[in-house]
# Entry
Amino acid sequence: MEYLGTFPAGFTELVKRLIERDTSSHELMFYDESVIALRSERPLTRLPYLKNLYPLIAWGRAKDLQSAYQMVLHTPIQKALASSAEPNTRHNFVIRVFIEGKPAPIIRDLHEKLEKAITEILGGRPHSERPDLELQLHLRKNQQCYLILQKGKRLDEELPAGTLPPYLCRLLLELSEPQKDDIFLDPFMGSAAIPLERARLGPYHMIFAGDIIAEKVEHLKTTLKHKQWEKRRKTIFPKVLDATQLNRFEDGFITRIVSDPPWGIYEGLDIQELHRLYSSFLREAARLLSKNGRMVLLVGSGVPLPEILSNSDIHLSIIEQFSVLVSGQKALVYVIIPE
Ligand SMILES: C[S@@+](CC[C@H](N)C(=O)[O-])C[C@H]1O[C@@H](n2cnc3c(N)ncnc32)[C@H](O)[C@@H]1O
# Structure
């Protein structure tokens, strides 16, 4: 089976690494800054660090939309499409067209030809208002084009504003190289998306999740009462705390910090306040992290984190840095270790 995975722009190298680690028989067919196509002998339903994973029905190169339609019309799609849709069911469907990720107008005669070919395979009929299946024909800016099948609802839609989606938390957590004896801290937890995803990811020793706002911490306590957290709730510690004063933790106690501190823009912090917040927090992080500790931070592109570190006596080094896009905003991911 062939699949197309999507992920936030900027994480290509990490996603390639993770797919190579996690899928036994695979081949990467093509990729760019936010999509990756792979072949797997084993059927895949999801990979937790991908935003979506779609069955890939056809793919090729095309200089324009007309040649993208032609590419699909000349590809034998019967097998891929029939095996991705539920067997023995008639499926009404819609084909949507995207250029560089944005909805684009169809080319009517070619569109109708494609609908006809798909009707013969799926048995249903084109139905744009209540489709059972959505097919998407994409043309990317590198002339890569592909037809994918969208089943079910898209992720991302029900998350409250400011909450990081689970696949993004997973990407950040993977960069921290999680270990089974981790004593983990997210001192700016917000909705606790990162610490809860760390708990789902695999074994750990303890997870501390903190925020300066007591209601957020109460909310996490309530979440942990749900049955699904029964086994793990005794190892997750919600705390009201100020990330700039973490004296409740001993020096070298924490093995991993993964966090999404305030970016300044939403909180209305000016550059001096941002400087103060980050230098105090980084100083505390340097004190708390164990010798082989690791910290991963997602920060808005306006936060001068490298300058704050290099103009201070804080003993932390940035070992990797990625420019990424999070909900359309430019951001940076830093992987940091003690010096
Ligand atoms: C960008 S949000 C984190 C969002 C979170 N990753 C999520 O997915 O919901 C930053 C959080 O830091 C908290 N915060 C701001 N200043 C803080 C401080 N000095 N100490 C601890 N938490 C703080 C805010 O209340 C906010 O919840």
